[in-house]
Design goal:
This protein is mainly alpha-helical. Helix content is about 70%, strand content about 0%.
């Protein structure tokens, strides 16, 4: 055998024995689980807004780093079969997260106008779109998720009810909701005054207790803010609220049993309205509601 032929034979043999370049693959099941964690985290933050923003920012990075740098890292490989929009969604999510300042002051009253709240909505919509691209179990199609994200850029249309069994809030319903929100604000103001008096007399235990009451009332007011923003409620809950405000207008007080029924029914509906992972303390809500509804 000639030297040239021997060399060609050796090269051919090595080529057959050399392992072929591995096809680029991503861990899609792990990516979908991570997306689920991020969606749950974002949903809980949106519901509890303006609370839990600092917690969101700190926990977000851990989940997103695994999703971006591990489970979907193969998107840059030559053989990747991932949709091209995957990288665009990841970039949009990261930019929205980086725009949130966890230390800045924010208001739950006009949260739709708050840039941080809008960034959370962008993150949530982009996660839905990404889940659709990856065909994660239970995900919307990418096109449907895109529409959801775009819809998040406008405020909810008043009087448009999308949950079954709900009707647009009537005038008296909104008056009752405003009453409860005002009652919580009044309770917050009283708790702050109580705290200030306690601090001036150096009664730290009483000051701490007053601060605890303030935080509880603030939490309940946030729930009432969200309930008012929903603009739709079941008719039986609206009936209880309208009855309450009719008594107020007549200068009468509601009996404790009826008051408890109103607070329980509102809490039950609100809890069902929340997305999976939404933060809600039914006990705190009912206690704050019954304490001030008379």
């Amino acid at each position: 055998m000639s030297t040239k032929l021997l060399r060609l034979t050796i090269v051919a043999t090595l080529a057959l024995a050399w392992p072929a370049a591995a096809e680029a693959k991503c861990d899609l099941p792990a990516a979908c689980r991570e997306i689920g964690e991020l969606r749950q985290l974002t949903d809980g933050t949106l519901v509890a807004y303006p609370g839990r923003v600092e917690d969101f920012v700190s926990r977000f990075s851990t989940h997103f780093s695994r999703l971006n740098s591990q489970h979907l890292a193969c998107r840059f490989d030559a053989g990747s079969t991932l949709p091209k929009d995957v990288d665009a969604d990841l970039g949009k999510i990261l930019r929205a997260k980086n725009s949130i300042d966890p230390k800045s002051k924010r208001s739950a009253l006009y949260k739709e106008d708050d840039p941080a709240y809008r960034s959370l909505q962008i993150i949530r919509g982009s996660l839905d779109h990404l889940a659709g691209l990856l065909k994660c179990s239970g995900a919307k199609s990418a096109a449907a998720a895109k529409k959801t994200e775009e819809a998040g850029s406008v405020k909810p249309e008043k009087g448009v009810c999308r949950r079954q069994g709900e009707t647009p809030n009537e005038k008296e319903t909104n008056e009752a909701l405003d009453f409860f929100r005002d009652q919580m604000q009044e309770a917050m103001d009283m708790a702050l005054k109580e705290e200030a008096v306690a601090k001036s007399s150096k009664n730290l235990q009483r000051a701490s207790a007053a601060r605890g009451k303030y935080n509880s009332f603030r939490q309940v007011k946030g729930y009432w803010d969200n309930i008012k923003a929903a603009s739709c409620m079941p008719p039986h809950v609206q009936g209880l609220l309208k009855y309450h405000i009719s008594l107020k207008k007549a200068g009468r007080t509601q009996d404790l049993d009826s008051c408890a029924q109103l607070c329980d029914a509102t809490a039950e509906w609100y809890q069902k309205m929340l997305p999976v992972g939404g933060a809600f303390s039914r006990k705190t809500f009912v206690e704050g509601c019954t304490a001030r509804c008379n």
